[in-house]
Design goal:
This protein is an alpha/beta fold. It has two domains: 15-175 and 349-369, 3-Layer(aba) Sandwich (Rossmann fold), CATH 3.40.50.2000; 191-346, Rossmann fold. Helices cover 40% and strands 15% of the residues. It contains 14 helices and 13 strands. It has helices at residues 30-40, 71-88, 99-113, 124-127, 136-142, 153-161, 205-217, 233-242, 259-263, 279-286, 299-302, 317-328, 331-341, 350-369; strands at residues 19-23, 45-50, 61-64, 93-97, 117-120, 147-150, 169-171, 191-196, 224-227, 249-253, 265-269, 290-293, 310-311. The strands form two sheets. It has a seven-stranded parallel β-sheet with strand order 3-2-1-4-5-6-7, with helices on both faces. β1, α1 (30-40) and β2 form a beta-alpha-beta unit. α2 packs parallel to α3 and α7 runs parallel beside α8 (233-242). The radius of gyration is 22 Å and the shape is globular. The two termini are 33 Å apart.
Length: 370
């Protein structure tokens, strides 16, 4: 094999000529297109290394690293592959999402081979890792990246307080396909409430069930759908049975594209303990649903209370049940919130995300030249 130069091609300024290496992984294959499709649209070459074998991104060259039957073996192989790719390739930038492990890999490629590194913070890196007992370590690593992207101004301010230059911190639109997630056009609502996400502690699906149990105890009749899967699934199913809600809640499992469930629902509910800016919330708003969400992460940057959605004043079953009951008994308010929610379509499109990526890559190039 002929050894190639490892210095980035800094003489190529237009982002449409840049070559970018992406190190990331998502269990939902659709998220690859949403996160990196807009990136691939503004680069000359986008190379993606991941573990998910269902990935299909137009304009990107994707390498799926086999997990060999175990995710951690796959991560080890991906690490070796990323270092080899950095060695043999000639990249202008390396992009990662999530500090552990992909951001750390991006830093390794940067320090071994030279390309500037970008970290996309979706939420947990800043909302959890940076404030944990070991927080000094991730906070130090943040400063090694040439640029960092976050989902909204709330996270920009958090990084600014940690000493980061606003020039190197960018808001990256959490884009949705506005052609897929469109307002209802005549579909009859089947579900009063829909919940979408991982069945995990941070998403807190059990809180949604407890809120519905309060509604049922008060004599309310409803039908709900919970789309997802995860480690809390057994506990979730048991709680539904214990609460007498088996006939009221449908569990279709994980759905890669939940658009048809949005079109057949009246209200979307988020119950997250911790989140950045959930894509499911943006999808539901783009689809014209009245939405209820907690004021965590960058959600308050998106939601104007009682204008385009409702922010929960507190995360407890009684408060959520009261909010849902008020929407049920006030259909005009529910319809108004759904109509205003669709304004997100103009700010959370793929086109806007491509503009953000173009700005990030330009900043990366400028930082490297400086």
């Amino acid at each position: 094999m002929t050894e190639q130069s490892h210095s980035p091609r800094s003489d190529r300024s237009p982002t449409g000529e840049l070559s970018v290496l992406v190190l990331a992984n998502h269990t939902d294959s659709g998220r690859f297109e949403r996160h990196y499709g807009p990136l691939a649209d503004v680069t000359g070459e986008t190379k993606l290394l991941c573990l998910n074998d269902e990935v299909a991104i137009e304009n990107a060259d994707t390498t799926v690293v086999p997990t060999i039957g175990h995710r951690y073996l796959g991560l080890l192989l991906l690490s070796v592959w990323a270092l080899y790719e950095g060695y043999r390739g000639e990249y202008d930038a390396v992009v990662s999402v999530s500090l552990f492990p992909y951001g750390c890999l991006a830093l390794a490629v940067k320090f071994l081979y030279g390309p500037p590194a970008h970290l996309g913070i979706i939420g947990i890196d800043l909302d959890h890792h940076a404030s944990a007992w070991y927080g000094a370590f991730p906070r130090a690593l943040f400063h090694l990246f040439d640029t960092i992207s976050v989902p909204g101004p709330t996270h920009v301010e958090k990084l600014r307080r940690l000493g980061h230059s606003e020039k190197r911190v960018c808001v990256l639109t959490n884009a949705v396909d506005i052609e897929t997630f469109t307002p209802t056009t005549g579909d009859e609502a089947v579900y009063d409430y829909v919940w979408v996400g991982r069945f995990s502690a941070e998403k807190d699906p059990l809180l949604f069930i407890r809120a519905l149990a309060v509604l049922k105890e008060g004599g309310a009749e409803f039908r709900a759908a919970m789309l997802g899967s995860g480690r809390l699934e057994r506990e979730l199913v048991d709680l539904i049975g214990e609460s007498g809600l088996s006939e009221s809640i449908d569990l279709p499992g994980w759905v890669d594209c939940p658009s048809r469930y949005y079109r057949r629902s009246r209200v979307f509910v988020s119950t997250s303990r911790r989140d950045a800016l959930p894509l499911t919330l943006i999808e539901a708003m783009s689809s014209g649903l009245a939405c209820v969400a907690p004021p965590v992460g960058s959600i308050p940057d998106l939601v104007e209370h009682d204008h385009n959605a409702l922010l929960l004043s507190t995360r407890d079953p009684e408060a959520i049940a009261t909010t849902l009951q008020r929407l049920t008994t006030d259909p005009e308010r529910t319809e108004r919130l759904g109509e205003k929610a669709t304004d997100v379509r103009s700010t959370f499109s793929y086109a806007r995300a491509s503009e953000d990526w173009q700005r990030i890559l330009t900043t990366l190039s400028d930082e490297h030249v400086d």
